[in-house]
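User: Here's a chain of 336 residues. Predict its fold as tokens.
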Amino acid sequence: MTDLSAPPLLVTGANGFIGRTLVEDLLRRGLAVRALVRAPERGATLAAQGAELAIGDVTAPSTLATAVAGCSAVVHVAGLVRARNPAELFAVNESGCRHLARACLEAKTPPRRLVSVSSLAAAGPAQGRPRRESDPPEPVSDYGRSKLAGERAIESELDRRLPFCCVRPPAVYGPGDRDVFAFFQMAQRGWLPRFLGPERQYSFIHAADLARGIADLALAETVPSRVYYLADAEAYPWSRLREAFANAVGRRVRLLPVPGWGLWLSATAQELWARLRKRAPLLGWDKLHEMKAIAWTCDAKRAREELGFSIQRTLEEGLAETAAWYRAEGWLPVSG
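Assistant: Prediction complete.
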């Protein structure tokens, strides 16, 4: 049962994939949650689950004071993954972080900690071994650069004045996700890509494991102000991921060779089509810089040792669970 008398935790981006999963985790723990949404109707489901709604936007600083007031901690999940241009990315991913950090500082009773969800893209692809927090960031996309700028904005605003942590997850999957879902769809249709060249390596994490790690971090009594990777304990070669996607949907799949020029052609077509429609492309030229990298991997050793972080499902279990959810919700056809 939720303790409504306790100070709430504020969650921005509560309507997004990770944000929704985090809110569910916190409510299951019996904690009071305040969800930042841009309009009341956008928070109807959250309110029905038991969350308090705060109307505001991280790009509108004047709306944040009321949202932050009286909160025990703030978890900043809101952000843009893709946009029509770099300015849109930085307006949300950098300036939004700065506005929220300032609102925390200016609160009559500041929250104990600000936890901001960044991205492995802020660090850039791995070179030779999984990335560690001590490695100098080398983002390769505007998205990654905007997320790194958001981390630095928080650090510059809060350093030595209010505790903060930045979480960098890798690829996140789970019930409700629409990005990794594309690979489930491909596997369901009987094919998956085989990227030509050296075998690619990826770190993954299930949304429920990520949400639990974020929640534990927000609730911890004492944690250093620093960056943490939250990810599965091992990195996965694309060959294992392909097999896991195929098994999750219960299909044998053919491998479609994808050369570098094929990625470029697809990105160019989507970029031009999106510009005609004045929308953000799903896979445009900015995402192409990320897709060309051989390894998107990170080492979550710091989180395991300092926070006691662990995952509660294997990759294969998580993908099978996610495929079952897609089928139950009608996103994938029921097999058989």
